[in-house]
Amino acid sequence: MTSFRGSDRNTTGGRLVSLPSWLSTPAQRYRFVLVAALAYLVIRILVAAWAALVPFFLGLLLAYLLLPVVNVMDRNAPRLLRRRGLSRPLAIIIVYVVGIALTAGVLSYFIPAVSSQADVLVSVLPTYVERVQGLLMYDVGQILEGIPPEIQEAVNTNLQRALGTVWDGLQKGLQVTVRTVSQTVSFIIGMAIVPFWLFYVLNDEARGRRAFFNAIPEVARDDVRCIFGILDGLLSSYLRGQLILCVLVGVMATISLVILGVDLALLLGTFAGIFELIPILGPYLGAVPAVLIALLKQPILAVWVALSFFAIQQIENLFLVPRIAGNAVRFHPAVVMVIVVVGAEVAGVWGMLLGVPLAAMVRDVSRYLYLRTTDRGATPEMAMDSLRASTGLIERPARAAAEE
Question: Which range marks the domain in which residue 240 is found?
Answer without folding.
Answer: 219-404
